[in-house]
Amino acid sequence: MSDRETEAFFDAQRYVDGEMTPGEIEAFEARMSSEPDLADQVAEIMAMDTALRATVPTPSAAHLDDILTSAEAAVSTPRRSIPWRQLAAAVALVAFGFGSGLLSARSPVPTDLTGDLLANASAAHALYSVEVVHPVEVSAGERDHLKGWLSNRLGAEVRIPELTGQGLSLVGGRLLPFEQGAAAQFMYENTDGTRLTLYLTPDTQEAKTALRFGAAEALSVVYWQDGLWHYALVGPLDKAQMTGIAQSVQGALF
Amino acid sequence: MPRFRQELKDALPGLWRYAFALTRDRARADDLVQDCVERALRKRHLWQEDRPLRPWLAKMALNIHRNSAKSAARHLHVAYDEADLTAHATAGPDQGLEAREMLGRVDGLPEEQRDVLLLVVLDGLSYAEVAETLGIPIGTVMSRLSRARAALKRDPETERKPLRPPHRPPLRSVT
User: Fold this and answer.
1) What is the ipTM of this complex?
2) pTM, rounded to two decimals
3) How far is B106 from chain A (nearest CA, A)?
């Protein structure tokens, strides 16, 4: 296109897109009546826009009101059930070293705790599962003390699931910061030294969700909420193995 | 803040259409819009009253969609109880052949041109609002828009879709 043509096309666009002042519109319409090419161009743009708009359905006003109302309700409730896609996104982010949990696919709320939960659980696993000397704060030998101490600090009764049926022995546990509160991490180990961690933190509202699975790089996470507790089981095993262990955790906690 | 709510409400039809263009799916468009609205409500203290809300919402929609598309593309996430994570769904069965052709051509545009085109034509933003949404000068908005429209008009021969009879005017409206 020559500069003049480009200029004419810009004008045609501005006319169609409602970007002209009333004075400009008047002048442009006068020009169109004497330049049929310009009028054709306008018609062409309008037809194209109409075709493009026709590809998209138009939601009813009532439907949009529903969305607005739902959003308002969600915002007025401090915490909702887990937006699993956000968790999944958080797994991805942890792998890339961000772990903010803010990026997500669907129904995410930046302040929602689940993205942070996953990021923290994965980060804590990566940090402590490789620790040789101090993998835990309180070792499995002081199981009762560990249970009492963490229940006290987390403000709700903590149970430490027995997973020997899965070939996993308890290494111990530790207290970790989480948002404004705290979380617990229990570490388990199988006979070949592979370590899994179970991360848990209490919510303010009870909920029960199905198991959900996310994977990033070699790390898998199975996560769910049961009652007040959010759980995230983190480990380097595949989905089937992780699922089996998560089900044992659920069984042991029931 | 009743004015905030009114502005939000006024922005929804355009935002939803834009969200649909990004996701190609009604349910995903619903989710994306609700997500944007929730974020806007939570962060409304950051909103400056003299600034239009729509670019802010459009920017959120685009970012959320991009990020989800990225994470879905890079990682395997298997949900036990939910639908797949495909970020860019194909045209639904309720869309006609011409609509799908049109969307196919839009998908063929360079991203920077597509962003501008969808914001102007589907969301109905002004050039100034698009400039704010994408953080580019108004002149760039106009040139990208004109390139997008010129490309759609060209109906490139490289795109040989057997479904379309060659004599059919490519841009006929389906309304």
Assistant:
1) 0.74
2) 0.52
3) 9
